[in-house]
Amino acid sequence: MLKTVVKKGSYHDSVVLMLLTNQISTIEGVNKVSIMMATPANKDIFKQSGLDTEELMESTANDMVVVADVNDDSLLDTIMTEVDEFFKKQSTANEGKKGAESVKSWDKALAKMPDADLAVISIPGAYAALEADRALDEGMNVFMFSDNVSIEDEKSLKEKAHKKGLAVMGPDCGTSIIQGVPVAFTNNVTPGSIGIIGASGTGIQELTTIIDRLGEGVKNAIGTGGRDLSKEVGGITMLDMIDAMEGDDSVKVLIVISKPPAKEVREKISARLSVFKKPVITLFLGEKPEYHEENFYHTYTLDEAARLAVSLVRGEEVKEGEVEVDKSEFYPAEAKKTIKAYYSGGTLAGEAAMLIKEALDMKVPPQKAEGFMLNTDGHIVVDLGDDVYTQGKPHPMIDPAKRIECMREAMDDASTGVVLLDIMLGYGSHEDMAGALLPAIEELQEKAKAEGRKIFFVATVCGTRRDYQGYDEAVNKMKAAGVIVCETNKLAVRTAIQAIGLDFTEPKKEIRPKQAADVTPGTPSEKLLKMLSEKPKIINIGLKSFAEVAEQFGCEAVQYDWMPPAGGNVELIKTLNFLRNYEGFDIDEANRAVIAKVVASQPVIKNVVLAKTVIKELNEGKVILHAGPPIEYKNMPDPVQGSCVGAVLFEEWADNEADARKLLESGEVKFIPCHHVKAVGPMGGITSANMAVFVVENVTDGNEAYCTMNEGIGKVLRFGAYSEEVVERLRWMRDILGPTLGRAIQELGGINVNPLVAKAIAMGDEFHQRNIAASLAFLKEVAPVITKLEMDEKDRYDVIKFLSDTDQFFLNIMMASGKAVMDGARTLTEGTIVTAMCRNGVEFGIRIAGMGDEWFTGPVNVPQGLYFTGYDGEDACPDMGDSAITETFGVGGMAMIAAPAVTRFVGAGGYEDALRTSTEMTEITIDRNPNFIVPNWNFQGICLGIDARLVVEKGITPVINTGIAHKIAGYGQIGAGTVHPPVECFEKAVAAYAKKLGFTL
């Protein structure tokens, strides 16, 4: 039976998950298991394995999914315990490591290392090209370990790099050495005067390790990716690097290697190399040159190329190595024995296939398919690193399982005389591949002996004596087990061929005069010359081990803990890239201008008046304002409809609930969003003509905003209550509280809001769920004036008592202030800063500066938090209210860290969670507000400027502190917590803005 566990928002690298999958697959009762991120490509792999489930298909690229075929349900608990322990061990293993500093975005990475010049990318191919494009825009060279990148994207990236004077190494580039610094799957090679450019990975490793063991060194070995010399790409990176290597005075000899190139590209490369000013060696795999030219040498094997390069550096011939083996035991050709060769990479496998075909005198090479470089008459050469074997599974350099499986299959063929294999040492490879393979080799040797068969195991170890696995240790382990170990791949293949009674010949080459082509060399860019002459400064996007190795070699590195941007939606990623690179004007500058207006704003409480005196629309018949984006009465949730009933009773449009509901359902009452008339309203947001509202003016921009007054706690209109008690309180607020405060505020000439906020935030308010300090500061301002007003003493007492008792009183002032400030800011009509957030109990809506009054909506969520006794999530109404304007302004949930006393109440857990929450909010905001300093946040300002692009890119939505209303009108507040907007609001806004600026997919 198939069981699925989805870990939402838990991103891990594919290599790590492959190793985890291998571990889980050993649990008894687990028939089949796959653990991957739910990217579109991985979903296809799940399907191919028969492991696709409904839960999997509903998951996103940021979700880790475990799908297991198990015999017993209870095994799922065992599996997940193992998974948790695996990651715990990984985390523990990394503790205390110096390691590259980790960040979670491009912006943070560039802030840490503004002079970074190399991006190392090892993420899923669907996203690698997009990140490479970003790196090029930032002026960085690119090393793309990632595969599954389209050839169209590769060409586009390389053309862009060429124009910018940069290089793209890859995609599917496994190896490079830059200024002695190993990149990706690379060996610890001595620096020296030999340069290498290779459209192969294991080929570069073989060359560099032979050179190292011969006592010379390599300064730069640049991988281009296997398709660089294809007809479609045209050798762009190869040609640029040839120019750069020629301009690098420290390179004395150059080696250029490639898997079989396209004919026209090979001719172009050869023509350029014919006018190279230094000795150059070529190796085009599959070609068998018969001569050299002066300072232009043409080789047949990697062994020959490496030895010739060392000979040229030293000025003396370096002889070929020898193999210690008793050849008298070998089979004669008449025995018709076959070779089974299992390789880690395509270049060594290709070389083996080439030499075996020559020994077999095969005139027409067979086509490569399913990873086979050769599959004829029982002879097999397989590239186990081919995509067909590695999709969703560890690479054979990491995991011995597939090779062991293949060797066992080889034993089932009676014709098998030789099993040939490579063992790759170095960074990224298995810590002891020799030791991991030995038990299987010894088992098969015993099996062959028991059957009276003779099978030779022949191996080559690709590595240096500085590789952490230990070259001599690996060689000695193999030899001790009776394996014939050869120092190069050519020698290993020749030994395997001789073991079945065959051989091949290598011509003795004469040196002819060089035929220089009519080619004008390109001028190497300063950036490429710099790359070849200085240690790279790396932003590592993907596998952490790549950054850790670079640091061991004295290289500066920043680890970008990448997750698929925009939830893995490629169209949205392209949209974000368009906005980032938009040339019409600087969107970042537009955003900074918007928040500059916020910082410069001066909200002042001017008065408390009847709503109809400042909102003209309330005088046009029966009109009710509501919170959130537009909604019809019939679609409002029950608490909001209850608030509407209360407003009808308050306005005396009906004198009972039944008639009130009948009126509301008749269509006679017009509903307008508060935001459409410069107002905001808490929870239901219901505001009618004769309700008292605060008037707040943003004196900087001269605009006003309005909000009803806070009703206190208990049964209140904003939570859907509409009893006589509720209506009477509203009338008291209209007749007594409002006029009293209005007179006091006017007596004071208005009250500046910013000083109250600055004081209160330092006293532990965040201005959405905790307003006690600000409410008392407000009371401190108005109380002396109220005591002098001519009014009824009981009314005076009632007003002051109400203000003293209502801890949340300042919230509505903060809302009106936020509205006034953000409306002032959005008079600037470009950019992606969020200028409003609100909800109506059904939809969540946002506005951004560049789209003016347009709403972008998505389904509203139910808050998560703590409930009053007797209630739980089943009782809760989806979130509602305009109070999220506070978060838009940078307070509320965005400033959670300012209010430690409230963090548990809203379900955040405690100080550490509050710190984590506010820190996370800095990921989606572009600045801080210096007006409002948070003492327990190291005296930093609150977050400011929610950038819709960052929300979409990172999948982090603003956190909003909120009250929780009962889903049935009349019950009122049943708890408090936090809620997040649906990310689709921001996705729609970003897509619409890009379209406005001319973007099309």
From TrEMBL:
Residues 343-496 form the ATP-citrate synthase/succinyl-CoA ligase C-terminal domain. SUPFAM superfamilies: Succinyl-CoA synthetase domains (SSF52210). This is Acyl-CoA synthetase FdrA. InterPro entries: AllG-like (IPR009499), CoA-bd (IPR003781), OXTCase_su_AllG_h-dom (IPR024033), SUCC_ACL_C (IPR005811), Succinyl-CoA_synth-like (IPR016102). Gene3D superfamilies: conserved protein of unknown function from Enterococcus faecalis V583, Enterococcus faecalis V583 domain, NAD(P)-binding Rossmann-like Domain, Succinyl-CoA synthetase domains, v583 domain like. Residues 191-270 form the CoA-binding domain. It comes from Bariatricus massiliensis. It holds the Pfam family Ligase_CoA.
